[in-house]
From TrEMBL, chains A, B, C, D, E:
It comes from the Bacteria. The chain crosses the membrane at residues 25-42, 54-75, 226-254. It is found in: Cell membrane. It comes from Olivibacter ginsenosidimutans. This is Bestrophin family ion channel.
Length: 293, 293, 293, 293, 293
């Protein structure tokens, strides 16, 4: 993740080398330029279409449908952003829960109980690390796919990582309660934190393994493609060769919105804008270390 | 549910065979092509309407109302997506709750209590399976309908499945408490999980048996139909025979949005984009089996 | 409430007899047709206004303001839908809470305690029934009105129904606790359910007695009226007598959106699209009967 | 607050005397009429600008920016409505919490404990009354202002009203617990209600003392003003003297949206559409009186 | 933060000296004026482009894309406002939690326990102060940045301030419980408040150290820049020298929306519209002082 100064326009406007969206688009922008130029050349120099040609009025259709495309893309981006922000909230809760658990362990355990202290000092950050690995494996991503994934068959025997860590934490806490080291009231307090671990894991998995419905995303991509590819035919009449930059810019704007949505809707990947899971897991490690002695 | 690579445009744009929306639309797209062509032929070759014909200006009305139609359809899709996503969240919570309950049962019950362990190992995944069947039966769908459904009359004696499983789990847990196997504190912890089961079931039923108000959906369909069917009359003047692809594309875009909404607003059906309830129930079965020994 | 097949377009498009919105609009649609025809006739046959007439350009104002009207109406519908959906959620919670309470009563009370069992078996569904009557009385609707309602004066001595049922349930549960039939832990569990009853009642009352601010709804209606009534003057120039169907359709679309919002914003009324409170109360009665023996 | 029949269009459209927005706007509407007429007169009769004048095309800019203004105003209204509705929810919760507390006090306290019963019977409604006064004082509104408010300096010694009532309730409840009149379990139940009192007070204060950021509201007002004041210059060419009603209507629509937002964003004031705090406090008084004997 | 009268239009419209957005924009507005004038001069006086020039139709592209830009900017502002309002809610909760904790400490601790009373009287407001400092340090802001920040290396040894205060409060409360000064029930009540402290801190950190994705903000800035800089070329044909005020105004509107979003998306900075953290921390100090004797 990049932390930037939102008020620095120059950097944002000219940061082509960092923003991946525009980099990925370069070949396509180039293609659109050639394509629009070819159509313009063909219509102007060869066909020499008159002002009365019906082709001339195609843009009226583009403006009728341009509205629904725009609003659809903006909602698409916002839905993706909501997923990204929910992912961030979940990892924020993970940080909080880890801190709270450490805080409580620190004051609930007797000062000389080195064994249990050391156990929690290691296990709490371990949950964050295991969850990170779990979320970044492709197996998690295809967990709900309708197709078979033979590649994951052999992995299927291995168990669910975060679940195992949570189970380990829960068991140890239960032993503390049974041995009378913590009271029933304290047991309930600790349990609510452990419960939160499992809920966070489940919610992260949901974001990871449930992309927005395929029909929806497929429809948007078809719509953009047809819309942009038919754009030059009619606009040649009003823009002439200026149709080349105009169409390239329109293509850049419309596909960028979809590409930004694609990039941020899965916040647990390794794109430039994805959440810094490793950094956050390290912070949890550091904070828990500070809190449990 | 299909898990796909959101960055693979080629696949999304050319996946006609998989996307059901466009498949269902084929006959109607064909009809719209014929219909538009017929109007164009009639107006151009027979009527030979002059440039002054009032028909020419009908598109001004389409552009005035096109805006409200577009924004309505996008909101419709987003409302449907919210229902779909809420359904996914509820099944995510079901997975979590099942896991948490199993985690607790595993450490709360004495190691040699094979009977109770085996009971929970079977009953927890049973809830997910029963809920899936309950949500996919038409009886659940028509639960609140104003009309009589004689076909369901004989079924009415059978009881509410998920309720029965929840009652069974609750009773057994209460017995454990009364027999002193679990303490009052532990009883409260377990009860919160059982409570969550019933809440998830109720919320899923709500999504299933309460479609968006009939007036709303009927209005949108009437609006689209009149809008699209009147589209060619005026546009023939500006587009000529190009009116055929233009109207077909506009029809495709507008009805697709409504059809996507129809498909995803009931996430518990058997459409291609519906939630993989069986897969999720299996995962619950697998995880619970891993956690309770 | 009507449960319908959302994929059945034919039924939705031609269901004039069921959809109340269009039925209520018939006289007004007829009036708009006459009104538009009269203006068209007057402008075309009598005034014979030239192409240069300033009246001709009035539609530019309609298109400038048409956008804000459209987006306002769509937001209006969505706000109303949110209220309707919140009402549905609340009654879903009522169903859940009733079920959960019954579940707990069933396993907490001794099997031979016929008196208390029978008390809860009657009182739990009674709450739903009392709440339904409470929500459908006009007294509840005008609870916060600034004007005096002498008609309700004599009713004012009677007490708040759902409150009385909740008080009755709470007292009995407290007696069970005092008599030692249920433990402190169990008392807390039951109390959370009883608390939920009172919260649901309060939230339903809020939706019922607080319509959206009068200024807002009055503004929207003024806006639609002026907008639609001025529509024909300018469009006669471009549409001629086609102005009649065009204006009637625009009128239908714009007022329908407002009327749908009016109908669904109070989900506890007796409109066709309102929630089936009696059906839901019966379901609660049936489920509770199944759960408590 | 006015409770009205949302389906009564006639009343809503012609209720000029009640709706304050339009009343406040009268002088400005009159000014805009004069202003537009003056510009029309000047451009038409004196300047006799030709069709080629560049002034003629200014409306193209208005339509380019009209969209962003419209959508901004609709979002503005919806943000304000969210605040109003949150305020209503909070007072609904206050009603619920007061009822629940009374319900519990009634059954928890011994029947002959007249002193404590009478204490709660008075103190619970007192909280609502104190909160109402607190929210309607200007001191609360300027609590977070950056400027000094010498007028409130002398008031600064007086303490925070609702806090004092909450403290009084909390102390008495704690005494009941210490004296053994209520058990630990019952103490926790009562405490959750008391906690809710303090949370509701804090949330109401937040809405009261935090208007939307000044930059945002100032920007919207600047935008509307420039937009509306430049409207007649260009439209005179297409509308002639019809520019007068057109501009007055556009002005009415755009400023009304902003004024409605202003009115409802602070739901605790004394505008016609503000929440009926006194009525609600009276209802709480009445209900609590019914519940505690 | 400025508390203003939202109904005072004159002040809002003419408050150039206070609103920072327009002040920062002055040089750029001036630049845009020169730039537009230069283009107008060049096209009109030198090129003397004919009516047939293709440049003339470039605005059709601006209107096609203007819609997506507008809606994008309005959503951007609303996303930023949501962050600002969430920040305000969190500090409102902090105030509430501090008050509630003080309320409880006051009645739970024995009246003569001066030591503990004085401890909480100091520590509770200390949390708010430490959190304010923590949120306003740049180290917090760059906590998740992918780049190294050598400047903060030496600070890294110092510990996390709010964590330390929370740990201190938790430990002391635990000691009270162990010493039997407070009961188990009371311990749970206090703990929920302490837990809330840690959660508020985590949520504030999230808002501070996670700006919206760089790709998104960079895209919006590129889009605005290209859009505004190409605006004058085509509009010179229709507006002539009027293009100068028109482009300057369009530039002002579009960039202002982005700048307002930038300003309010980080509510914990020191901009004019940022939250008055110091004032709120002082209020907490004052209220806690009033409540604990």
């Amino acid at each position: 993740m990049i932390i930037y100064n939102p008020k620095d326009w120059l950097h944002a406007v000219f940061s082509f080398h960092r923003s991946e969206t525009i980099k990925k688009l370069y070949p396509f922008l180039f293609f659109m330029a050639i394509y629009s130029w070819a159509i313009a050349f063909f219509e102007i120099e060869y066909l020499k279409l008159s002002e009365q040609s019906w082709l001339r009025n195609i843009p009226s259709m583009h403006s009728l449908l341009g509205f629904v495309l725009s609003i659809l893309l903006v909602f698409r981006t916002n839905t993706a952003y909501d997923r990204w922000w929910e992912g961030r909230k979940l990892w924020g809760q993970l940080t909080n829960t880890s801190r709270n658990l450490a805080l409580r362990i620190e004051s609930l355990l007797p000062i000389n109980d080195k064994v249990n202290r050391s156990f929690y000092k290691k296990s709490i950050p371990l949950f964050a690390n295991t969850l990170r690995d779990h979320l970044q494996s492709s197996r998690t991503r295809f967990m709900l796919d309708e197709k078979d994934h033979p590649a994951f068959a052999q992995l299927d025997d291995s168990k669910h990582g975060p679940n195992q860590v949570a189970a380990m934490l829960f068991k140890r806490t239960n032993i503390l309660y049974k041995e009378g080291i913590i009271s029933g009231d304290q047991f309930i307090l600790l349990n609510n934190e452990l419960l939160a671990f499992a809920d966070i894991c489940g919610a992260c998995e949901r974001i990871k393994n449930t992309p927005i419905p395929f029909t929806y995303t497929s429809f948007i991509k078809k719509f953009i493609s047809v819309y942009v590819l038919t754009l030059p035919y009619g606009f040649v009449f009003s823009l002439g060769y200026f149709v080349v930059p105009a169409v390239v810019f329109a293509f850049y704007v419309l596909t960028s919105l979809e590409m930004i949505a694609e990039e941020i809707e899965d916040p647990f990947g390794s794109d430039l804008n994805d959440l810094p899971l490793s950094k956050m897991a390290n912070n949890i490690h550091k904070h828990v270390g500070e809190l449990i002695h």
